[in-house]
Amino acid sequence: MGRYKKYERDDIARKAMEIFWRNGFQGTSTQTLVESMGVNRFSLYAEFGNKQNLYEAALQLYAHEVVDQHFRALESEDGGLPQIEAMLAGFAAAAGELGSELGCFMCNCATERGAEDPGSQVFVHAHVSRISAALSNALNNARQDGVIRPEVDTVQEGQFLATLLLGLFVLLRAKVEPAVVRSSAHIAMAHLQQLQLRSQVQGQSAAQ
User: Is the pTM of this model over 0.85?
Assistant: First the structure.
């Protein structure tokens, strides 16, 4: 059998992503991959070489598809506090819901393989940098629009919020009491209010 076409390769990586995301690297055997994806073992190895390469292809696809979907709004010129608040509200709403225990594939990778696998570290570090930059971009837009105080360090705040978001994903994966996740998300939203100019906060209060 020849090499897979790109769309076939992406489809295999997508199916592998779902399996690795749910079971982890160590919890996923090659036999599980073959049976779950309905592919030939030899063809799979001919295309990807080994399980590690398939895992990295799954991480790459996750970055392009899932992360793009959730963070593109923050990275845009229109990204601002409403987009950050919506993301935090999403955590609060998702806590305890079916499927939330999957967490974030990149965060799962970090906790399982980040300390021992250089290949995984590359993806995790890039993911953390991207999330931090996306949040910083949204905060910087808000600062330029006069929504938050001019002295706010948007880079440091972006790093702080990224740490919080990634930590919330880990809590979801660990099936921590949903109230803990909701409380953390609500405190982060209150923190965002503290960054705003007083006139903005007063205007929001008057509108409620």
Answer: yes
